[in-house]
Amino acid sequence: MQRTESPVAPPVVLTIAGSDSGGGAGIQADLKTIEAGGAFGTSAITSVTAQNTTGVQGSHLLPTDDIAAQIRAVREDFDVAAVKTGMLATSEVIELVAERAADLPNLVVDPVMVATSGDRLLAAEAEDAYEALVAEAAVVTPNADEAEVLTGRAIDDPEDAAAAGQDLVAMGADAALVKGGHVAGDDIVDVLVTDDAVGTYRHDRVDTDATHGSGCTLSAAIATRLARGDDLGDAVARGIDLLARAVRYNLDVGEGPGAVHHTVELRDTAAREETSEAVESVAAALTENKLAPLVPESGMAVAGATPHAERPDEVAAVDGRITLTMAGPRPNHGVRFGAEPELARFLLAVREAEPSSRFAVTCRLSDDAESAVATLDGPVVTVADGEREAEATPEALVEQALDGHDDAPVAIVDPGAVGVAGQVVVLADGAATVVERVETVLNAVQQG
Fold first, then answer.
1. 57: burial class by Cβ within 10 Å (0-12, 13-18, 19+)?
2. 250, 295: one domain
3. In the 8-state DSSP scheme, what is residue 427?
4. 200 and 253, same structural domain?
5. Under 8 Å between Cβ of 227 and 11
6. Range of the domain at 325
7. Is the distance from CB of 283 to CB of 318 less than 8 angstroms?
8. For a designed S-S bond to 189, which of 84, 158, 338, 383 qualifies (C-beta 3.0 to 4.6 A apart)?
9. Nearest residue to 393 via CA among 312, 332, 318, 306
10. Verdict on whether the full-model pTM lies above 0.70
11. CA 265 → CA 9, 21, 221, distances in Å?
12. Residue 118 lies in a domain
C-alpha cells in the first residue's frame, strides 16, 4: 500500500561557524540546538578543528570561496529565517560574512575568540574586523572577555556589562547581550542592551566546568527562537533558560570537563509521559495496601519530576491526592503536571542538593511513623523542631533539613508548626524505590 506523505515546514536557520570534532561546540552544537528547538539547521563551515573536551589540537581554515559557496547554496535553496555566526577565525572570513549581512535575516553574531578550554580561535589581527559585522547584527552575544576586546572596556560587574552593551549598540548592532558567565559571583547576570532599554537576566551559577559549547548553544537557541517568530526579549530569555538547564544537566563525555546538554529541553519534554505514567504506577501500587496509618488528613500527595525538571509545572502529581474512602485508599483524580505545587517545590529544592531524587510521597507524621522511617536504608533528616516557622517556604524547609548533610536523604521529617500538620516526605530516584520505601514504613508502623 502506498502511503500519503505529510511533510512539515519548520523555519530554517543557517549557522556559519567552525566544526568541532568533539561534537560539543561549533557547527555540531549549533545543529543539535537548532533541531531540538524546532527549526531546520543548515550550515556553512568556516574551518575544521581537531578538538575534544580537553582542548583544540589543530585547525584548518577553509578557503573563503568555499565558505561563500556554502552560504550561497543555502540561501538559493532555503527560505532562511535566521542566521548565526560562530568561529570565523580571520578578518577575511569576518569581512566575507559582513558583506553578505544585508541578505542574512535575524543575524545573531557570536564573536567567538577563545574556546572554553582557553585555546585561541581568532587571529589577533582579526579583532578589529568584527566592528563591521557587529554593525549588521540583530543581536551580538559576546561573553565579558569578548566584550572587553570589542569595546576596550573592563567588565567587572553588570553595570560594566551594560556600558559595554551600549558601546556595541552604538557600533550599529540592534541589540547586545553581554553574558556574565566570566564575571565573578554566585549569580550569573546576563545584560541585554537595546537602543531604548537595558534588561538583566539573573540565574544561579552551576558548580561545574562542563561548559564546552555554552556560547554556541545560547546563540543558536536565540537564532532558533527568532526564526520561530519570538521577539528579541523572549528569544533571549528562552535561550538563557535553555543554557542554564543545559549546563546543570551537562553531558559527562570525554576525558575533559564535558559539554553542555544541547537537547536537554527536548529530552525533558519527551520524558513527561513516562514520568506521568510512573506517578500513576506509584499511586496504583500504594493503594493496594491498607494505607490508613500513613495517609494525612489532607491526603497523601504523590509526585514525580521529569529527569531535568527545573519548575513546578515539570513535576507530575496525583490531582487531589490519595484519600481514604469507604472502599479504601483511592486517588481522587488522575495525574497532572503542576497539581501539587508545594510538594513540587519541596522536591525541586531537594534536587538542588541531589538531582537524582525524582519521586516524593507525603505520609502522616506520628510517633510510630517517625520511628518506622528510621528503619529505611539511608539518611533520614529532620527540620529542626521548634525552629520551624508556620510560614516557611518549601525551599526554606529543605535547606534547614539538609544543612550539614552531604548524602541524599531517603526521607525528610517535617514536624509542622502551629496550624501546620507535620509530615514525612519519602524520597527516591525511581518509582519502584519510593513505593518500596513507603511500604517499608507502613509495615514497620503496622508491626509496631
1. exposed
2. no
3. E
4. yes
5. yes
6. 271-447
7. yes
8. 158
9. 312
10. yes
11. 21, 24, 11
12. yes
